[in-house]
User: Fold these one by one.
Assistant:
Number 1:
Amino acid sequence: MSGPARTAGGLADRIRALFPGGAVTEETWRGLEDALIRADVGPAAAADVVARVRADYRPAMDPADLVVEEVAATFAGDPPWEAPWGPDGRPGIVMVVGVNGTGKTTTIGKIASRLRTQGRSVGMAASDTFRAAAGEQLGVWADRTGATLVSQERGADPGAVAFDAVTSAEARGMDVLIVDTAGRLHTRTPLMEELKKVRRVIEKAAGRPPDDVLLVVDATTGQNGIRQAESFTEAVDVSGVVLTKLDGTARGGIVLAVRTELGIPVVLVGTGEGVDDLAPFDALAFARGLIF
C-alpha cells in the first residue's frame, strides 16, 4: 500500500528530539503524548500508545520506530476485509455511509471494480436520491465496472430504492449489492433517522441486516471524525471504516482514535482518484506514514 508511505511526516524527528541521548523524563512522555494528539490520534489513543512505548522503550532503541510498532499493534488481530457472501447463495449486502464530501460514491465504484476483477457480479443501489447528479455519478461507475444499477428519480424515497435493489439483486442472483446513501451531517437528527430507516428497509427486504456497514472517513477530517464514527455507529452499527484522501499531506491519525475508542476496524484505504486507488488497510504502512 503505497499511499500512506507517501504522506508527509516530520513527526519522527520531533519524537527523536524528545529522547536526547536516549534519556527520558516525565516531560519526554508528556511531549510524546502531545505530539501524537497533534497528529489527530486522539487523547485516549495517544495515552494508550505512550503507555506501551513507555513499557517497552530501552535507551538503545529508535523511539520513532518503536512508536510505529505500537501504532501498528493497535490494529493487531483485525482480519483483512472481504466483501461478504450472503446466506444460501443470496447477495452479500454492503451499506456505505458518511458525511458529504468524503468520497462515498467514488469508494463504492472502486469496491465494485475490485469485486468485478475477482469475477463477482455486483449490484449498486442509488439510495442517495437528494444530491444532484448522485445517481448519474453512480451510473457512470456502474457502466465503468460492469455493475448493475438500481435507481429512481431524484427525490424518491431512499428506502424504496434500497428495497427494490435488494429484491432485484436476489432475483438476478447477484453476488454483492452495495447500497449508496445520501451524505449527511452526523449532527442532523432527522437525517440520521432517515438513515436508520434505510437500514431497516434493507433488513425487511433481505430478511437480515446488511452484512457490512462501511463508514467512509476523510483522512483530513481531524478530531471531528470520532464524533462522526460515534453517531453513525449509534444509527446503523458501523462495522468498518474506509479511509479516503490519504494521497496528500493528511496522515489519517483519526482512525487510530476510532479503533481505540470504538473498536471499529479500518478495512480499506483510498489513495487517489483512479479506479485502482483503493487498497486493503496495512497497519504497518499506515503507522509509518503517520510517523515518518
Number 2:
Amino acid sequence: MLGPAFLTGVVTNFLIIGLLPTGQAARFGWIGWLVTAAPAAMVLLIGSAITVIALDPTSPSRASRVVRQTQERTLGRLSRHEQVALAALAVFVVGLVLAQFVRVDIGVIGLLALLVAVVGGALDRQTFRNGIDWSTVVLFGVLLGTGAVLRAGGVDRWIASLITPLTHSSGDPLVAIMIVALLGVAVRLVLPMVPTGFLLLVTLVPAAPQLGVSGWVVGFVASLVAFTWVVPRQYEVLRMVREATEGEMFNDRQAVIVGVAMTLVALLAILISVPYWRAIGII
C-alpha cells in the first residue's frame, strides 16, 4: 500500500513520470515525489497498522530470538553477487535522489545501475537473457509512449469530456479527484491490480490537464486505489501470500474486512492530502 508514496516503490510510478509533460516531470524526483505524497503515506501507515491490530489484537508482535537466529544461520553471509546486487540497487536509489539536483535522466541512472550489476557479475549473460521478463519491459516501453499518442489523437480531451460535466457544477478539483478514486475502486471490482493500474494511468493521466488537475495527482490517486481490493481474488499479492502460506495466515472473511478497511483508508488519505496539495501548488 505504501508503494505509490515512493518513486521506487512500484514500477508504475515511473509510468506516471513518463506520461507527464517534461516540465511537470522534472518536479517529481525521488525527494519531490516523497514530499508530495507524505500526508497520504502517513495516513496509509497509521490506517493499515490500526486495521491489522484491530483485526487480531492478540497476535504476537515479535518473533522469538531462537527463530530469528535459526533463520540467519540458514541464510548465511551475503555472497559476492548479492553484495554487487545491493551496490547496483544503491547506485540506482542514490542516483534518483540526486537526479533532482544534477538533472540526470532516469534512464541514464538505470543504465549505470545495470552496468554495476553486469560488470560485478551479479547479472551474467544467461540471466540477462532469461531472468528478465522482456515482454513486460517491451510492454512498459510501449505504454510510456502512449501519453503523447493519446494527446495527439485527442483521446485525452474525449475522456475529460466524459468527466468534466460532473465537475463543472462544483468548480472544485476535489470532485474530479474523488471521481478518479471512485472510478478506480469500481474498476477493481472487475479487474485485477496490474491491468487496473495500467488502464487508469494510461487513460487518465494524459487527460488530467483537461480536468484542471495535475497529472501527478491523477496518477498517484489512480495508482493508490489500484492497490486496494474488495474482492480478494482480484488482488494478485493476496493470492500469492495465501498460496505461499498454504492458506494458514488468513481466511476469506479477514481478507474482505482488511480489503474494505484499506479501501476506506486510501480514500481518506486522498481526502486529507487535497488541502496539502493545494498549499504546495499541485492543484
